[in-house]
Design goal:
CATH class of the largest domain: Alpha Beta
CATH superfamily of the largest domain: PPM-type phosphatase domain
Oligomer: single chain
Number of domains: 2
Strand content: 15-25%
Structural class: alpha+beta
Number of helices: 12
Number of strands: 20
Radius of gyration: 30 Å
Shape: elongated
CATH topology of the largest domain: Phosphatase 2c, domain 1
Length: 474
């Protein structure tokens, strides 16, 4: 039997597809998966088993009918006879991390007993010594009867087991790897394991070996490291939640009565510390002009959120007190030198004058805003760029430029999390944004903002940086 059809793709994407076209060969990926020597199990986002290769069946002594379509913890519950079993808890935590972050998770060495076909095993504690099914001591396997052993029930594990509730002691080295869909969300998880039981048992059977103490210490330290990592992840999650709550409280709501169609979006990085440094603001000035700004602080967590709040407030005050965007960013740059963690922050400030139909702007180390003209072309506002805040040791006047517009256009300001990807030049992401903006040029700001996020891959998936987006209909 081959891969379950819910999992098997017709053709791979990326390098595999390019290689096929270059060589003209037709590759049977279903056969490749089936022949992989390492045991592999494929799970859906609901942790239901959708595919399994032969090596996994051999390692677990299962058939496909035992596994396909079953929840992984129904198929492989904890050994009810082992009160210290942590296999399902540790595996569940790892799989949830993969679903949350979209990143591979390597687990420490795990003791995870599995149910096996009817095989004589040692009775549970308290059974008479002359029980008919006691271990003969020849094979060295450590097995235990679970609740319901020998009855054909599910043994309390949620599985109607073919083994009558018997478990065999096993040690595994697991790695859980996500398979991402086009939108960046986790579509499947490849659960790859290596059975290291023979290695562990081999060490146990050689008490005179000088490496025994080292092996035992290594295993103990692996478990301690796993527990420490769990505590660190929990602490990170708490700090991240606090920082996000603080940032959301400081980011302004849109002021009613702007007489403009405006949409704002903020998307935090998923499962990353690199959050809470992005900000935006759209406000009406005393003379009726509209000030719009976005910025990005270098940093993460609570510290970045605090710096972000200070810079946003300072620029909001400066644009109301000085003559234009360049002077406001000059004042912000001077202020940034006195704020710990604010150096190298970036920002762009634009002022929209509806009576003059102009956009006056200045950028401090920030990606340029994009203007979708009413005529249909997309223009980057890149004629007034300068280094990030506080980057120069001496005060230098910042540049400022003016761009005319006609009613019906759209102005887009954003942070680099929208366009920057680790494996490509930032200009590629900027071009992708311009293409998306042109493709959806007929949309109003609200649906346009959502369409841009989808096209740039920052919805429902994984990104390395948080993203702020402001879309203004002119």
């Amino acid at each position: 039997m081959g891969l379950n059809t819910r999992f098997a793709p017709r053709a791979p994407r990326g390098r595999g597809t390019i290689r096929e076209r270059a060589t003209g060969l037709e590759i049977d990926y279903q056969a490749l998966f089936e022949s992989t020597p390492s045991p592999n199990l494929v799970l859906g986002p609901d942790l239901v088993i959708v595919a399994v290769n032969q090596a996994y069946l051999n390692a677990t002594q299962c058939t496909r009918e035992d596994l396909l379509g079953r929840h992984i913890f129904d198929a492989f519950p904890d050994n009810p006879a082992d009160p210290n079993a942590t296999g399902t808890r540790n595996l569940r935590a790892s799989l949830e991390r993969v679903l949350e972050t979209g990143e591979r998770d390597s687990m420490a060495l795990q003791k995870y007993d599995i149910p096996v076909p009817g095989k004589p095993c040692a009775p549970y504690a308290g059974a008479p010594e002359d029980a008919d099914d006691r271990d003969d001591g020849d094979d060295g396997d450590d097995c235990a009867d679970g609740a319901g052993a020998g009855t054909g029930g599910d043994g309390g594990g949620g599985r109607g087991r073919r083994d009558g509730g018997r478990f065999e002691e096993r040690y595994w080295s697991p790695i859980n790897t996500p398979v991402l869909g086009q939108d960046g969300s986790v579509r499947w998880i490849i659960h790859r394991v290596e059975d290291v039981t023979d290695f562990v048992r081999g060490r146990a059977r050689a008490p005179s070996a000088p490496t025994d103490a080292m092996d035992a210490d290594l295993y103990t330290r692996a478990l301690e490291l796993q527990e420490l990592n769990e505590r660190l992840r929990e602490a990170h999650a708490r700090e991240r939640a606090t920082a996000l709550a603080l940032q959301q409280a400081m980011l302004p709501a849109l002021v009613p009565g702007l007489h403009l169609r405006v949409a704002v979006r903020y998307r935090p990085a998923i499962g990353s510390l690199n959050v809470c440094g992005d900000w935006y603001e759209v406000a009406e000035l005393a003379d009726g002009r509209i000030a719009a700004a976005v910025g990005d602080v270098v940093g993460q967590g609570l510290a970045a959120a605090c710096v972000m709040g200070q810079l946003r407030s300072a620029l909001s005050a400066a644009i109301r007190a000085v003559g234009g965007p360049a002077e406001a960013l000059e004042a912000l740059g001077l202020y940034a030198r006195s704020v710990d963690g604010a150096l190298a922050a970036t920002a762009v400030q634009a002022v929209i004058d509806r009576s003059e139909r102009t956009i006056v702007y200045s950028c401090a180390g920030h990606p340029p805003p994009l203007l979708l003209r009413a005529e249909g072309d997309v223009v980057p506002l890149d004629q007034a760029t300068d280094p990030p805040l506080g980057a120069r040791p001496d005060h230098v006047r910042r540049p400022q430029a003016t761009c005319p517009y006609t009613p019906g256009g759209t102005l887009v300001l954003y942070t680099d999390g929208l366009i920057e990807r680790r494996d490509e030049d930032i200009d590629v992401g900027l071009g992708r944004l311009a293409e998306s903006l042109f493709r959806h040029r007929e949309l109003d700001p609200e649906p346009l903002a959502d369409a841009l996020l989808v096209d740039l891959g920052v919805t429902g998936g994984t990104v390395a940086d948080d993203t702020a987006l402001v879309v203004i209909g002119l």
